[in-house]
Amino acid sequence: MLSVTVLLASLLALHAWRCAAVPHNASYPLGVSDNGRHFITSDGQPFFWQADTAWALFHRSNISEATTYLDDRASKGFNMVLAVGVSMFGPADPNRFGQLPLVDFDITQPNEAYWAYVDQVYNLAWERGIRVALVPAWGYYIHESNNVPGDGNVTVDTSNAYAFGKWFGDRYPDSPKILVADTNPYWTNKTAVSADYTSGGVPQTYAFTDYGPVYDQLAKGLQQGGGPNSLITIHPTNQWFSGGPIATASAFFDDRDWLTFDACQSGHADYAPNPPIPWWNARRGYEPVQIMYGKSGKIRPVLDNEAHYEARYDNGKAGKPYWNASDVRIGSFQAAFSGSAGVTYGADNVMQWYIPGLYTQDGSGPARSWSEDIQLPGSSQIQNIRKVLTDRKAYPNLVPDPTVIIGDSGGDDNRTMALRAGDNSALIIYTPTGAVLKINVSCLDSPITASWFDPLDGSYTSANVSATYNATASFVPPTNSTHLDWVLVLEA
Ligand SMILES: *[C@@H]1O[C@H](CO)[C@@H](O)[C@H](O)[C@H]1NC(C)=O
Ligand SMILES: *[C@@H]1O[C@H](CO)[C@@H](O)[C@H](O)[C@H]1NC(C)=O
Ligand SMILES: *[C@@H]1O[C@H](CO)[C@@H](O)[C@H](O)[C@H]1NC(C)=O
Ligand SMILES: *[C@@H]1O[C@H](CO)[C@@H](O)[C@H](O)[C@H]1NC(C)=O
Ligand SMILES: *[C@@H]1O[C@H](CO)[C@@H](O)[C@H](O)[C@H]1NC(C)=O
Ligand SMILES: *[C@@H]1O[C@H](CO)[C@@H](O)[C@H](O)[C@H]1NC(C)=O
Ligand SMILES: *[C@@H]1O[C@H](CO)[C@@H](O)[C@H](O)[C@H]1NC(C)=O
Ligand SMILES: *[C@@H]1O[C@H](CO)[C@@H](O)[C@H](O)[C@H]1NC(C)=O
Ligand SMILES: *[C@@H]1O[C@H](CO)[C@@H](O)[C@H](O)[C@H]1NC(C)=O
Ligand SMILES: *[C@@H]1O[C@H](CO)[C@@H](O)[C@H](O)[C@H]1NC(C)=O
Predict the structure, then answer these.
(1) Ligand 8 centroid vs 380 CA: distance in angstroms?
(2) What are the tens digits of pLDDT across the range 438-460?
(3) Cβ–ligand 3 contact at 92 (below 6 Å)
(4) Is 262 helix (H, G, I), strand (E, B) or coil?
(5) Which of 217-231, 235-249, 267-281 has the lowest mean pLDDT?
(6) How far is the CA of 41 from the centre of ligand 1 (A)?
(7) Shortest-distance Cα residue to atom 1 of ligand 7
(8) What are the strands, taking DSSP E only, across 61-124?
(9) Ligand nearest to the CA of 487
(10) Which ligand sits nearest to residue 69's alpha carbon?
(11) 84 within 8 A of 134, measured Cβ to Cβ
(12) Which residue among 140, 158, 174, 261 is least packed, with the fewest CB closer than 10 Å?
């Protein structure tokens, strides 16, 4: 009798657990377009991914804060938030309510109270039209730079990754998944590599461990809940050892069916943190995007999952200037004009959910509350990228076409970039510098209408097109004391 009661109680508990979770909703999952370039909603409409980064949202917020945050982000057009399940603060760090994510530091024993709050915030987001791209567990639990995963307490390995992935995928079947973060499947002792280089050592050939099989098990588990077309990528670091694969998801896992979208982290530094380790330059965040977009073989939507955060110091180092709205706007426009399927914004204090007096700020930017920094200007401007693209009748059929720019396009964050409508109905040109644009308009039928789009407020003003232009036309951007960058929209 006792055992029956216990059994019944546990069945009921399991049942309650399932109901409390997030119900499958057929309109939540996103898919990939037939040409592999962009995301689509369940009814086939193109979806431009406009993400904000709030890694610690589930871990450090309470419900009124999460509501304030999501209301703000929804009002600024964000349709995606990046957040983590088992956080980067370690398995012994409780959430706002004193709960740990796991029971007995066991990755296969989720603590229901912890995840019930995750569900609550996930549902709050969806009520506002915001999906959550979930990192099930930070890369730290598979391979940390000190080579002690999860500080020795919790390890995700081939013995448990499938079970954890399956549990996670069953609970959140509809959301896009980002495997791990800030790491790579080939890991070695990064501390030692950096130390060697900074002491002037010659780059060596390092032994590395291939953690790919752990990723495979995790992905396989996630697919049990979300199905074979689940959106899954990995989120690599921005630097890696000489001679290793470049740090994009596809450079490691191009042959895996579970990799349904490609991603990189162009990162926060405009100098090599540990020269000569290869790294992505934050002022050329478009570079990995172009590499992913232009690679041969399987075509997938591409995203820069982590570009320089607004109000984060260059390389996260105090004493360096911090990235401002202009920097993050330029980087995101350039990524989108390089063919990315969306953009990722982040603000340093929002990403880590800093609350003065409650948490220790990590020193990577000026310490201000998350609630102050949700107001940073870049967060309002980023929606204008989506606007200027989706306002075109040819959207999403827009392809990067640098050949229409005559003369020097500039380098780094001065680089001018162009998108051409596949049906030649439009050219859209982004200039970060406000220099005169000389454009080869011969692909457009005349007459052409021309307008300037203001990347800060999203307004259009008509531009003059010379009545007798030849194939090459010059356009002089307006001047405005608050910004140099403009988008020229030419439509046939
Ligand atoms: C799915 O989500 C949409 C959008 O929030 C909502 O309108 C709809 O009622 C939901 N469907 C179910 C079955 O919950
Ligand atoms: C959440 O925390 C804030 C302090 O940041 C506090 O003012 C508020 O009352 C809390 N809300 C709830 C529901 O506990
Ligand atoms: C978890 O790891 C930390 C850091 O290594 C250690 O101080 C702590 O005692 C560990 N906790 C448990 C429960 O093993
Ligand atoms: C990693 O390298 C650092 C620097 O050489 C060293 O202090 C540390 O013990 C190494 N860790 C492991 C786990 O090998
Ligand atoms: C933003 O920072 C850049 C350097 O990264 C600087 O050139 C620019 O003037 C700054 N813009 C504003 C508006 O402060
Ligand atoms: C971008 O323009 C600024 C201002 O003219 C200049 O200082 C910088 O060197 C330029 N950078 C590149 C890569 O052209
Ligand atoms: C302009 O583009 C056309 C193709 O659309 C090309 O044939 C022509 O050579 C280009 N003209 C210049 C000046 O680049
Ligand atoms: C300058 O740009 C700002 C931001 O887009 C806009 O609000 C303002 O109206 C512009 N000023 C002029 C004189 O065009
Ligand atoms: C457009 O041309 C008219 C007439 O030449 C001129 O008055 C006006 O300033 C021009 N506008 C722009 C934005 O160049
Ligand atoms: C356009 O090109 C023709 C032929 O090359 C040339 O005669 C004419 O002067 C050009 N017109 C302008 C406005 O540049």
Answers:
(1) 15
(2) 999 999 987 889 999 999 999 99
(3) yes
(4) strand
(5) 235-249
(6) 14
(7) 440
(8) 80-86
(9) 8
(10) 2
(11) yes
(12) 158
More confident residue, 426 or 194: 426
Give the Å distance between the CA of 153 and the centre of ligand 3.
6
* List of residues 6+ apart from 164 with CB closer than 8 A: 107, 108, 136, 137, 156, 218, 221
**Percentage of the chain exceeding pLDDT 70:** 88
Q: Tell the residue nearest (CA) to atom 4 of ligand 3.
A: 151
Q: Residue 331 is encoded by which pair of tokens? A: 């980087």
Please list the alpha-helical segments (H only) found in 212-294: 212-226, 249-253, 286-294
| pTM as predicted | 0.92
Contact yes or no for 83/55 (Cβ under 8 A)? yes
Ligand 7 contacts CB of residue 440 (under 6 A): yes
Cβ atoms within 10 Å, residue 160: 18
CA distances from 370 to 60, 79, 348, 350 (A): 11, 19, 8, 4
Cβ-in-10-Å burial (0-12, 13-18, 19+) of 438 comes to: middle
Residue 76 has pLDDT above 50, yes or no: yes
Q: What structural domains and CATH numbers belong to the chain? A: 28-390 (3.20.20.80), 398-491 (2.60.40.1180)
Cα-to-centroid distance, 465 and ligand 9 (Å): 9
Closest CA to 266 of 287, 245, 280: 280
Q: Is 219 exposed, middle or buried (0-12, 13-18, 19+ CB in 10 A)?
A: buried
Q: Give residue 358 CA to ligand 3 midpoint distance, Å.
A: 21
Query: Any idea how long the chain is?
Result: 492
Tell me how crowded residue 73 is: count the other CB atoms within 10 A of its CB: 24
Pocket of ligand 8 (CB under 6 A): 454, 456-457, 480, 482
pLDDT tens digits, one per residue of 5-39: 434 444 443 333 444 478 889 999 999 999 999 99
| E strand segments, 237-301 | 262-264
Q: Which of 177, 179, 101, 189 is nearest to 144 (CA)?
A: 189
Q: Are strands 472-475 and 486-491 parallel, antiparallel or unpaired?
A: unpaired
Token pair, residue 131, equals 């999906």
Name the one residue in this structure whose structure tokens are 């890696």: 240
CA 346 vs CA 69, 304, 412, 443: distances in Å = 13, 12, 20, 37
Question: Any residues with Cβ below 6 Å from ligand 4, and which?
Answer: 146-147, 189, 191-192, 195
Atom of ligand 9 nearest to the CA of 461: 13
Answer yes or no: is pLDDT of 200 > 90: no
Q: Which residues pair with 488 in a beta bridge?
A: 429, 452
pLDDT at 374: 98
Say if ligand 10 is within 6 A of residue 468 CB: yes
